[in-house]
Inverse folding.
């Protein structure tokens, strides 16, 4: 006899499959197609695991991995909001809160609470784990753009100033990684992929 | 000055991006396209996290998540081997060992050793963590096939006997989940999606 608890968990996991259909603005390295939020979440987890030694403070790696795995599930309802699109960013929080209520609400109550608390912690960016996770999430956007000679920065004419402003929270979570990322931005300008300001 | 260590880690993480282009035989729920191994690895991690209470023995969830995140990286070189294709399965181990040497070898030596040990542990399926991870990896194949009214089982005419034989290790890692999965196989036969034996 399969328990109601397991049935609820499976229903949540089947619903989660839809994250594979949510497209981001960044492309795969090589540029063949847009990246989706599920494969991004995997790359985020792999990056967090591999780069954890560069965190600014001592972190619980398990909690960071949980954040990476869960952080974008709200996009199933709320969609991906392009970080340089001011209009989309305006009501992002409201749309994502409603999505979190529905999607985590598919789970048994104790798990729904746990997952929601992890997502809230990630969004608030106050704990060492959330700051490091936010740094890695940003690095996930920067990596393909750098390897794709400007990628979505170039395509959407985002200046180096805006890229710096958007990504400098990397410094709070992982200073050595921000040093690397600043080098990428400088190289993007020097190579003529993006302009300094606009 | 960005360290050689961080540069090696970034090179590995950029190479890992290619996992997003490795296609499996299963389709997304709804059937729109084949699933790739990167988004599968994310779903595997989410399933392992959500279903960890059903593990047959006490497990270290962090180690299971690491296995989920790393387990398919070898497919970047070795490709995805369809589990019901005897020819592909024949030299799978050899191809994947060579891939593990090259891909994990991009990392600093200590991390290369750690990741390789986790991948070897997953492949050997001896520890409680590896048994649970193997159960969840199989569930990842079963879930979309069940939700897609037979999916790749139906498409490739895989009988219920073969599906059972392939997936029964789920029972060793997570008995309650195997009970659920056996119900799915019975329903697939009752619904005429697959035949009992062939």
């Amino acid at each position: 006899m399969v328990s109601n608890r397991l049935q609820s968990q499976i229903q949540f996991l089947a619903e989660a499959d839809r994250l594979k259909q949510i497209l981001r603005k960044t492309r795969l390295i090589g540029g063949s197609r847009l990246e989706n939020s599920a494969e991004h979440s995997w790359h985020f987890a792999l990056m967090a695991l591999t780069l954890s030694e560069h965190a600014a403070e001592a972190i619980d790696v398990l909690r960071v991995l949980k954040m990476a795995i869960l952080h974008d599930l709200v996009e199933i309802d709320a969609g991906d909001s392009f970080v340089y699109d001011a209009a989309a960013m305006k009501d992002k929080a409201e749309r994502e809160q409603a999505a979190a209520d529905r999607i985590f609400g598919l789970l048994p109550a104790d798990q729904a609470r746990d997952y929601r608390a992890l997502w809230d912690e990630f969004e608030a960016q106050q704990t060492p784990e959330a700051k490091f996770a936010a740094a890695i999430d940003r690095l996930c956007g920067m990596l393909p753009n750098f390897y794709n000679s400007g990628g979505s920065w170039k395509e959407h004419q985002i200046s180096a100033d805006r890229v710096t402003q958007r990504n400098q929270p990397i410094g709070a979570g992982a200073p050595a990684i921000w040093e690397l990322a600043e080098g990428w931005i400088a190289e993007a300008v020097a190579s003529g992929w993006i302009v300094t300001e606009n």
About this structure: The longest helix of chain A spans residues 128-147. The mean pLDDT of chain A is 96. The longest strand of chain A covers residues 23-27.
